[in-house]
Amino acid sequence: MYRSNTCGELRIADKGKKVTLAGWVQKARSLGSMTFVDLRDRYGITQLVFEGDPGLGREYVIQVTGEVLERESKNPKMPTGDIEIKVESLNILNKAQTPPFTIEENSDGGEDIRAKYRYLDLRRAPLQRALALRHRLAQEVRTYLDKQGFMEIETPYLIKSTPEGARDFVVPSRMNPGQFYALPQSPQTFKQLLMVAGYDRYFQIVRCFRDEDLRADRQPEFTQIDCEMSFVEQEDVLNMFEGMMRQMFKNAVGVDIPDPLPRMSWYDAMDNYGSDKPDIRFGMKFHEISDLVKGCGFSVFDGSEYIGAITAEGCAEYTRKQLDELTEWVKRPQVGAKGLVYIKVNADGTIKSSIDKFYTPEQLQKVAEACEAKAGDLIFVLCGPKRKTQTQLGVLRIEMGNRLGLRDPKVFAPLWIVDFPLLEWSEEDGRFYAMHHPFTAPKPEHEKWFYSDKKEDLERVCANAYDFVLNGTELGGGSIRIHNADMQSRMFEVLGISKEDAEYKFGFIINAFKFGAPPHGGLAFGFDRVCALFGGQETIRDYIAFPKNNQGRDVMIDSPSLIDQVQMDELFLESKVKA
């Protein structure tokens, strides 16, 4: 037996016990006649006391036996801070090189070096807490869904490429020369086939793969809580998974969320927040002021389809330098605005604006009233095409929320977004794309427009779809699916997918629908994002044991990498890149 206890469980009640611990040396402090050593495992830290200097370096793996004593100088910040172990015997299990960064709560190592030595970074308490939270959340998911009659069923990883969205990762087949598997972007078609097969409640905590540009909350391989149900309508799905999220919040992080959760249409979300994933922890809703400011001789406004404003409370004291900086900020390509108009409501009630010469104080006062601005507030105005400008204003709103400290990660404000458009038109390609995916059903009351050949009718169709949004992040999304072969064929037609292409890519599911497919629907939660937001973080990397960097590389194992010519020949491949 290497240990009788972990390094995080001994308390003052254990005083006088003879114990054996094993772990890593976090630090050693020599006082001449005695040495204090912090021994660490994933459960915590216990202080050891040695007579003399045992000669231990950082990250040595050791086993000690000794008596539990009450500490003279207690440490209230440590769960084990009331006790220490007077070491009677020491067994060095493995010596260690000095690590390239400190393995403590706050490390001195940069992101790149910690990624290269990820196995060392994973010894740190913040990452251990993150992965422990991920584990607890996964157990809550399985417990809840099992009690609701769901079966956990695995679906294949080597599937057919159906590029209709992100790029697929492809895998060459040695046994089928010149042909390729694709790694699944999601188990979408398979879970629908399981509904056809009669498994009316399916779930899977499943790995998915997308070859797309990366960012803080995106990885080339990620995990979904993937679910599907038969004989359900939208209300059934929302109630089921709202219950799951409520249990996860309560049992994993001790937070009660509203019952029921608020719901908001996609159109209201865009009109009020400029985003289909609004952060409702703070206000700063949009005010359209087009009628108040058009026709006054300011050509920028007069020629705009939409003029929208937000009010930043208490910001009237912003200096010209700060306002110029914000103006340059909204001009960045990531935002794309051409400029920024401001209106200050000073503490004495007077109004100062960057468009003073075009508007009287009375006209600006009406704008301030329409924007619900009071003394000390600052109004920001953007203009242009409606949806584009709303999106830009939404980005500015989030930025101001960050600057004003209104986005507390310890506050949770979930909601459902419903009534999305089914289709979105691409002027560049001259065709419709599915807002969600091509298996999403239109709302029943909109089917009359779905079968119309008029572009304006198709643009009116709402999807029977829904997203779960938390603190400005889409955590999950789903829909009621098409379960009728004729309707599915119509969807492919609307999307400009020929009958031949539809048969080649999706013939298996169209044919399955002809054998009695039940009405069904479901959703998938981005599990990595769920973990990060529950943990109060914006990046998902700390909640993945071995993540990739922004270039999709694992710098620890140096992957991806070239393969040797023998493997290339076996797979009938040639490369334009030589080793």
Roughly what percent helix? 25-40%
Total helix count? Answer: 17
Number of strands: 22
Look at the helices and sheets and give the structural class: alpha+beta
What best-fitting shape do the alpha-carbon axes yield? globular
Q: Please report which band the strand proportion falls in: under 5%, 5-15%, 15-25%, 25-35%, 35-45% or over 45%.
A: 15-25%
Alpha-carbon distance between the two ends:
49 Å
Average pLDDT works out at 95
Largest sheet: 8 strands, mixed
What topology, given as strand order, has the largest sheet? 6-9-10-22-21-20-17-11
Spell out the blueprint of helices and strands.
Layout lengths: L17 E13 L3 E8 L2 E8 L9 E10 L12 E12 L16 H6 L1 H4 L3 H23 L3 E2 L17 E3 L7 E3 L5 H9 L4 E9 L11 E10 L3 H20 L9 E3 H8 L13 E2 L1 H4 L5 H4 L3 E7 L7 H12 L9 E5 L5 E3 L7 H10 L7 E7 L1 H18 L10 E5 L4 E4 L4 E4 L12 H4 L4 H4 L6 E6 L2 E8 L4 H10 L4 H15 L6 E7 H8 L30 H6 L9
Parallel strand pairs: 3-5, 6-9, 11-17
Antiparallel strand pairs: 1-2, 1-4, 2-3, 4-5, 7-8, 9-10, 10-22, 12-13, 13-16, 14-15, 14-16, 17-20, 18-19, 20-21, 21-22
Helix pairs in contact: 3-5, 3-16, 6-11, 14-15
What does it look like?
It is a single chain. The protein has 579 residues and is an alpha+beta fold. Helix content is 28%, strand content 24%. It has helices spanning 111-116, 118-121, 125-147, 188-196, 234-253, 266-273, 290-293, 299-302, 320-331, 361-370, 386-403, 447-450, 455-458, 485-494, 499-513, 527-534, 565-570, and strands spanning 18-30, 34-41, 44-51, 61-70, 83-94, 151-152, 170-172, 180-182, 201-209, 221-230, 263-265, 287-288, 306-312, 341-345, 351-353, 378-384, 414-418, 423-426, 431-434, 465-470, 473-480, 520-526. The chain has an eight-stranded mixed beta sheet, with helices on both faces. A five-stranded mixed beta barrel has the order 1-2-3-5-4. A hairpin with a 2-residue loop joins strand 20 and strand 21 (473-480). Helix 3 crosses helix 16 (527-534), helix 6 (266-273) crosses helix 11 (386-403) and helix 14 runs antiparallel to helix 15. The longest helix has 23 residues, at 125-147. The model has no long low-confidence stretch (mean pLDDT 95).
